[in-house]
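Subject: for your reference before the review

Hello V.,

The reviewers asked for a structural picture of the protein, and I figured it would be easier to keep everything in one thread rather than splitting it across files. Below is the amino acid sequence we used in the manuscript, unchanged from the supplementary table.
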Amino acid sequence: MRGRGDGRRRDVPAAAGGDSLLRAALEAAPDGIIVVAADGRVVLYNAAFLRLWGLDAAVMELERPALRRAAAARLVRDPEAFLAEAEEVQANPYAVMHRLVELVDGRVLEMHSRPLELSEREAGRIWHYRDVTELVRTRQKLEAATRLAEAQFEGAPYGIIVIALDGRFLRANRRFFAMTGLDATWAELPPPERAACLEALAKEPERARAFNARWREQPGTSFSELFERCDGAWFKVSTQPLRAGGGEVLGQVFFYEDVTAQVVAEQALAESEARLRTMINEMETGITVVNRQGVITHANPAAARLLGLPADQVVGRAVDWSWGAVREDGSPFPPSEMPVNFAMTTGAAVRGVVMGLPLGGGQLRWLLVSAAVLRRGPAGEPQEVVATFTDYTDQKEREGLLAKARFLESFAALSAGVAHRLNNDLTAMLGNAWLMRQEGPLTPGQEEAVAAIEAVARDAAYLVADLRAAATGSDEAKGPVELDVCLGRALIQFPEAERQRAAVVLSAGVPRVLGRPRALETAFQHVLANAFEATRGPVEVRVTRLRVRDEFRLSTPGRWEPARIPPGEYAAVFVEDAGEGIAEEHLGRIFEPFYSTRFAGRGLGLPATAGIVREHGGYIGVHSAPGRGTTVVLAFPVPAERPEGT
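And here is what came back from the structure prediction:
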């Protein structure tokens, strides 16, 4: 027998084999190993044991019971269960034990324990400890993922059924049975009978039968189709191949989505649009829609007649300013004042413009023209303008004025009624989209579909609003306006991330101006949008009183519109960014419609803003240079104070 020596073995029996060989094998083992005699003496242990438990050789001098108590108190998460193992061994010395031990530092050790004959006269026990922390965590993650997948399968907002490639029923969630009205016995039917039951639910069983045949013929392909049920509900059925890890097709997964609300809303919208189209085609008022490129995209028969063009030559035709339109005094009508061009440039509605159109032979057809924005882009910039015009030739005579006025009033009332009906339908669409979101988490595909419905509804809402504006014009009157209020309303239209970049400074004592609030909000939106696009950094916005005595100079290069600001008192808004700036050669054209140095298809923001500022009797100035950012000044004259009692 050997003594304690270096502390890693105690009273090792010679019968156990060569001591050096035993020690080498023990130290080479990846597991932590400890051997204990029946009387509690620690006979042998290896370095891996010390590392796993975080012990040192001095602690190993303790007898096994004391050693276990020391380890349990300091290292084990459940000391009582750990110490109870000793009682089990005492009660059954020949038991083979296997369990997991969780340490306070989060590690998990796998323990194997079995009896060991130390010599012919002495029995003992050997313990193997192995760090299985990663294995346990992986298993826990797998179990959690399995539970999550199960929850998603059962909690999905649509019915799911999985069919094997040979037609065997594999699985379905509860929602599938609830949506189809089938019960669990259906799953036990032979494949042909199961398919027949599903096909019988469709209003057109032959279409459902063709759908089933299609996925069987092409099992590796995804399909999607809309079906009306016999009870009037609508289902969207989509399929996805079920594949093994190697990619081979094992079956098909079917997704049943109830889209009744969506289909009903779309049908109602289509019917409303058809009624509106019929009314427009039967109207005596000419109606055309012009896009940003100046091309007529829609026109009713009355428009072709009033323009003196063949019906098949109106749509697709560019609005030609050389048509020779004249004012009532016979002077040429400037292109910038054409109702369509003005509405596209400024975003403001125009109504009641009298325009003479040459018909040849010295004859003129007088038209009463109105125009308004029909569709806007993401930043509020006009994308399409609708123009309505009636033959005003007879109206030049006094006796016809009253009849035409009544007609326009009727058209306005009709447009208001149509708009009211469409708004109800659009409200239903948005409400149903909201309900779909409330039913539970949506898949990416469902989220995209719901977002598309909402986008279409909002776009149609803009169309309704602008159509009503085209018929009735803007009734907004000028009144005292606080620029900081209009600026705040303009800022709120931008996403939160961009609003946070705007550093707004409001000076005290800024006077009110005479203006139209919505028009000013539009002007501020254009300027802020340009600043946010120019830089990802902060944008400084100042609302202040501006007193101009001799001349208010912008740093060079700079540009004022419509002219250099004259002396006077103004309420002004400064918007400054630290973007890339505008080269001097471009400053001379920044107020031209459709001219832009940034993005294709843009170029109406500043021209529209300049038009609004001019309408308010104000001035807009721009200072910019490459690499030095851009500063935009919008200055509005302060009305003179009236003496009291006047």
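For the response letter, the relevant points are probably these. The first strand starts at residue 32 and ends at 37. Residues 342 and 444 are 42 Å apart (CA to CA).

Happy to draft the paragraph if you're swamped.

O.
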